[in-house]
Amino acid sequence: MSLLARRVIKNNVPQILARRLMSVRPRQDQETSEGRKKVTIQSLQAQRRNKVPITMLTAYDYPTGLACSSNPNLDITLVGDSLAQVCLGYNSTTELTLQEMIHHARAVSRGTTHPLLVADMPFGTYYGSLASATTNAVRLIQEGRADAVKLEGGSEILPVVRQLTSVGIPVMAHVGL
Questions:
Q1: Is pLDDT above 70 for 16?
Q2: 4 CA to centre of own chain
Q3: Alpha-carbon dihedral of residues 64, 52, 154, 61, nearest 10 degrees?
């Protein structure tokens, strides 16, 4: 038995071991998901300023949304376009429709309490006009009950990001593969 293990057993302080060995320490003020306030863009910005790691998991359905909400240390639940392959059996994420994403986002939202709910905008739903991108994002927010949308791309999506944020839709950008 190592010296550290003997010390922990002797001093009966397993929490010290857990704190030292975890890559991300749990928040000390968050005991249960019922006590955790809804994560917002502002609270995520505060975490970033305070150098507190931001945690995120992917969910595709109601039970997984519940599971994500059961962890008070989880900040963001993502309904990713990977659901096309993982859940729907498609060969590519490009086959996913907006209606399918709305369906899954809405299911996850029913199980979501405190995490910020982010939904991927499927391929092709934001590359037309700014008006159609806005309409599609609004549908994800209203019908899918997402708190924010995620777009993949580079500088070419900047006008869309500006448009969506100007109408109050939070956007998570993702530089794709």
A1: no
A2: 37
A3: 10
For residue 124, the SS3 value is coil
Contact (Cβ atoms closer than 8 angstroms) between residue 120 and residue 158: no
Mean pLDDT of 23-36: 50
Sequence-ordered strand ranges (E) for 47-115: 56-58, 76-79
**CB neighbour class for 75 (10 Å; exposed up to 12, middle 13-18, buried from 19):** buried
Cα 52 from Cα 35, distance rounded (Å) = 19
Instruction: Please tell me the pTM assigned to this model.
Output: 0.79
DSSP 126: S
Q: Which amino acid is at 106?
A: R
